[in-house]
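Lay summary. Proteins are chains of building blocks that fold into shapes, and those shapes determine what they do. In this project we predict the shape from the chain. Here is one chain we studied, written as its sequence of building blocks.
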Amino acid sequence: MIGTTLGDIRQHLEALAEETGQYYLVCGRTGERPSPAIGLRFENRPTARAAARATEQYRAALRRYDPQLPRYDVIVCEEDGHSSPNESETVSTNHARGATASRETPLSPPDDRSASEESLVDFCHAIAGAVFETVAESSHQSVERAIMDTYLEIAETIETPDELCLRLLESMAIELERRLDPEAQAAILAAAAERLSSPPADDDPLEFALSRLQSVALFDSYTLERNALEKQVQTRSWTVTLSAYPLGRAETGVVTLPLAIELFRHAPESPISISRAEPIDGSSSTWELVVRRSTDERPSGLVSVPSS
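And here is the predicted shape, written in a compact code that computers can read:
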């Protein structure tokens, strides 16, 4: 029994994986690596097939929250480029049967860089799924429906997958900000972060979190500066600049939910507050934020920060 939550399925996949495995998963139609199996390899074909089934189960669970989630025909490939043509038939039921059987050129194994990276779409859906599950199991179930209603209303006017996934995060932030106080927001995000795979330990959680968000193309670049005046006091404060950040609007401010989730993953015990969203040089895509960690402060700005 794999389990019914996204966290259970992801843990099952990670338990099946072997770093030196010769088998990996791809979409038989597009060649893309399907999340949450990106970067995972498996020792033999039966194990890889079990992983393919778990991957489909994971994506089916996400689709309950977002019907727009891309559908993949998950197949097993071997390191030397040989694919398993019948795998798409046994794993996925949402495609033309036998589509991979006529492939003349076998899929080439991805390089190390592409195998370890996650797309913006998959990252957003993983975050959203973790938050939705947490909300559904909390005393705030009505918030889940409100988030979906807001998202579906926004999605009617958008066609591109990248834009849709960003609007999903934005709709979540709108309803969490509107319906929950900061302490409840912090509890939801911290619990959601626990559902995601644990990153390796790092001495600089903020740097690690920002690097992670940059790797999924949530922004082009960032700068991080420790605020010198507070080096000798208990509160730690940093000024963060995000370039080409698509979740900022001059009239409303900046959605900070992805950054908060990543910080909770890397430093779950550290109280967090985010403030002072200022557009740089009048731009609505480059923003400056202040991130604080202090045991004396109440959480704030974890889902969004109004523009200054």
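What the prediction tells us: The first strand starts at residue 23 and ends at 27.
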